[in-house]
Amino acid sequence: MKPNHSTHIQFTLTGLRFGIIAARYNNVIVDGLLRGALDALERYSVMRDQVKIVQVPGAFEIPLAAQQLAATGRYAGLIALGVVIRGETPHFEYVAGSCTQGIAQLGLEYNIPIGFGVLTVNTEQQAIERSGPDAGNKGVEAVLAMLQMVQLLHDLEQEHATTSGTEQSNQEAGT
């Protein structure tokens, strides 16, 4: 049974820039993830000229490119897209683990939401099913998660600014 993920989110911000880091390895599958991601961004009024797409050789290289984009401060959020298919050696664990840990660390270090659309699957067929145009495209899900976090961080920042302003006014008034 598949989990029920909402395909509609509350996202009201405009004029923001986003970055997508897409691996070239398994490019047919990643292209499906990328199409899904771009379609999802467009559904939330993010135009193509607000999106920078960077291609890297494989999933292992995604964190370094993401770090470079995050360091610029130009992007409200990033989306990581790639595929790691389990083989007969431990290579899968090294690549998938390094990619996942690197992306998570960058989000915390730069305080930037990063949608995780890196498939870690047992078979190529599983990857194809998760990158197609039907429901379940993980590129779409990565965008939705990232947009939700961009909105949440914005809302929390606004709430903090409002609360801080009220506290400062109270202190100045001696209350």
Task: List the SSEs and their pairings.
Layout: E1 18-23, H1 27-43, E2 51-56, H2 62-72, E3 77-85, H3 91-110, E4 114-121, H4 124-129, H5 138-173
Parallel strand pairs: 1-2, 1-3, 3-4
Molecular structure report:
- With about 180 residues, the protein is of the alpha/beta class.
- It has one domain: Lumazine/riboflavin synthase (Rossmann fold), CATH 3.40.50.
- The chain has 5 helices and 4 strands, in the order βαβαβαβαα.
- It has helices at about 25-45, 60-70, 90-110, 125-130, 140-175; strands spanning about 20-25, 50-55, 75-85, 115-120.
- Helix 1 (about 25-45) crosses helix 5 (about 140-175) and helix 2 (about 60-70) runs parallel beside helix 3.
- The chain is globular, with a radius of gyration of 18 Å.
| Radius of gyration (Å) | 18 Å
Strand content: 15-25%
CATH architecture: 3-Layer(aba) Sandwich
Structural class: alpha/beta
Strand order of the largest sheet: 2-1-3-4
Quick rundown:
The chain has 175 residues and is α/β, with parallel strands linked by helices. It is 51% helix and 17% strand.
Features:
175 residues, alpha/beta, Rossmann fold, 4-stranded parallel beta sheet
